[in-house]
Amino acid sequence: MKPAIVIAAATLLMINGAAQAEVYRQVDAQGNVTFSDEPSSGAEAIQVRPVTTITLPKMQDLEQIDQPQQQEQPPSSLYELVRIVYPRNNEAFHSGNGDVEFSVVSSPQLRDGHKYEVTLDGQPVGQSTSGTILVQTIDRGTHQAGVNIVNRRGVQVGSGTGITFTIHRPSRLN
């Protein structure tokens, strides 16, 4: 064997031995636990699992991901008017089961592939191609409702002014 190969193999064995050094655990008379890489009297050797490492992406890679992709801009002139006609703004009414049927209109009428979308307190709650959308079991109290028009892909192409309404419902306690 060549001396260079023998030296390289010996060096690799020494590095491997250092990487897999044993860890010793010792408990003293007061119950304090210490760990060390050197053996001592009363210490027991313990197995240590390999450390999990995570390689984070480079900053330039993250910047490319964070850049917004070109999205279709909603045409602003498709609909002159989109609004909720029922319930009326600031209306308060009783609904024993919490169901509310929203009536919406637009000018011009909906185009093919478009839908009305009603939002309640900022969250979409229903879509329809007709002018009515039933939302069930709304909690009692005051809510904000809005209306949008979305295309086949769910992209908003029109929106209307929101309303505020209050539902009165019987209490579960009464």
SSE layout and pairing:
Elements: H1 3-19, E1 23-27, E2 33-36, E3 44-46, H2 59-66, E4 81-86, E5 91-94, E6 100-107, E7 115-120, E8 123-128, E9 132-135, E10 141-150, E11 156-159, E12 163-168
Parallel strand pairs: 5-12
Antiparallel strand pairs: 1-2, 1-3, 4-6, 6-9, 7-8, 7-10, 10-11, 10-12
Concise account of the structure shown:
By secondary structure, the protein is mainly beta.
Structure write-up:
The protein is mainly beta and about 170 residues long. The protein is built from 2 helices and 12 strands, in the order αβββαβββββββββ. It has helices spanning about 5-20, 60-65, and strands at about 25, 35, 45, 80-85, 90-95, 100-105, 115-120, 125-130, 130-135, 140-150, 155-160, 165-170. The strands form 3 sheets. Strands 5, 7, 8, 10, 11 and 12 form a 6-stranded mixed β-sheet that branches. Strands 2-1-3 form a 3-stranded antiparallel β-sheet, with no helix packed on it. A hairpin with a 5-residue loop joins β1 (about 25) and β2 (about 35). The longest helix is centred in the first third of the chain and has 17 residues, at about 5-20.
